[in-house]
Amino acid sequence: MKISKNLGAIRHRIAIVSGKGGVGKSTVTAGIAYNLARSGLKVGILDADVSGPNIPHLLNVEAEKMQVSQEGLLPVIAAYGIKIASAESLVESSDTPIVWRGPMRSSLINQFLADMLWGELDYLLVDLPPGTGDEPLSIMQTIPLTGLVIVSTPSSLSILDVSKIINMAKTMNVRVIGMVENMAYYECPGCHEKVYPFGKGNVKALSDKYQLRLIGQMPLDPLNTGKDIITSDDSPAVRMTAEITRTIEDLL
Ligand SMILES: Nc1ncnc2c1ncn2[C@@H]1O[C@H](COP(=O)(O)OP(=O)(O)O)[C@@H](O)[C@H]1O
Ligand SMILES: [Mg+2]
Ligand SMILES: [Zn+2]
Question: Where do the annotations place ATP binding (predicted)?
Fold first, then answer.
């Protein structure tokens, strides 16, 4: 009851999910949030990947910690007013591992939902841990989600695990807004030839099989150079998710 009251002033609640880790889920989440907030919308991110919280790092507010007020928990504020709740903003340093067990992770997420002072938001994006474990299940049960955005690479292992997510969403009656194919191809900066290191057409085939919409294909970005942090409107993650963000807005 407390959670539904606390989330009452949030217009859209979208979870970003994937079958596997390392496919770009957090990058996509941060990029979409940035694009939405830049266009003047009020945006929050719940970093529900408690064991691998990356959102504060990606949005360049790693050093800041969440504060507690009389009314509840205060989110960390990133560019364009993006409100972030993350386990990374609790711990002393980001190389301190979070060794909490499953039930503790779920109760931390519930606290972020019940006690975080989100206020009025147009969008709350939830960055879920990969797979169909405790946290994705409990989020789908606890929050009335507007829908899911599924991120996958074209590799067959990623695809396999995504099928499980799609079936889970079906069972839970949660809408899948669409699929994002990440690392879809690599364009040689020299001759502009496109190569497909993880396979070609696999994500499209999967989305066709389940009658889902493929809402974006992001290339492997040679300019990433291992710097994952979004520091400006021109950062790769922002550029690569600009059109995906518009598509999501149109679909809702
Ligand atoms: N399209 C891309 N091009 C280049 N690097 C990418 C791309 N997408 C993600 N990455 C990089 O891959 C790594 C994993 O991405 P991340 O968003 O943390 O994945 P996940 O949240 O699914 O585990 C990060 O270092 C990220 O910067
Ligand atoms: Mg992640
Ligand atoms: Zn070339």
Answer: 19-26
